[in-house]
Amino acid sequence: MRAVEISAPGGPEVLRPVTAPVPVPGHGQILIRVAWAGVNRPDAAQRAGLYPPPAGASPLPGLECAGHVAAVGPGVARWQPGDAVCALLPGGGYAEYVVTPAAHALPVPEGMALREAACVPETFFTVWGNVFMRGGLKAGERFLVHGGSSGIGTTAIQLARAFGARVFATAGSADKCAACEGLGAERAINYRDEDFVAVMKAEGGADLILDMVGGSYIQRNIRALADDGRMVQIAFLQGPKADLNLVEVMTRRLTLTGSTLRPQSDAAKARIADALETQVWPLLAAGRVAPVMDSEYPLEDAAGAHARLESAGHIGKIVLRVTG
Hints:
By secondary structure, this protein is an alpha/beta fold.
């Protein structure tokens, strides 16, 4: 099969088209013929040598895809060859075929093309697991998401708004702020010109913050939280270390937590999949939420897709055309 491998840790140029064996599904797994594959920040981290795949996972990058079931392994009852699915992957999405646990696949939402469906799993699993399951966002609460124009950000804005939260977002340009507000944020904060801490304090503080920046933002997030507020950390674009004054955490009863999706157990990811199918798939089918598409690249130009991702110019999701 055609695939793209990471030839050595480094920049986008280390992504190299290769020919690789078609994987064989094991017990509880399905083999997917990939039509489209999503491109995500963890792919770039893996390419740079900072995010190794878990034991037993494919060394090829790619954490989400959409396509058709090509074969099923022993113990799989739900799926049959030919079924259209989108799926969260442990790795291997930058290829014509990939295996994943059957419980991590979901039907392509009604009315959605495979191109868009390929951009659903990684961001929707991440947002649902962190904003709603871990962060406990409720209707009426003030929710702040950093990087509002990213794949994660555009998903978080839409889902939080759909479930009745008041949504705020940060972004780095007027165009990106406009995109965030167009998706449902009542206030987009251009972090180059404004202080999100001051903005959120004027609103009474954030009840929940979803952060992927880290570094200096960690202490600033603490200041931006309302009493009894929660912060969920999912990445560290500025680095994982910060000087913290925990007095505010104690006296204002704040909760600091976080997670990363890939190392979680198959059972934990299956629970997120079940919740998404029940709670979110009807919204996707109705068009109330949808992945925001930025650009597409052929599989062989995965390097170009990564360069676009790391340019910080994109709004929404980048996708690879594999067999679509």
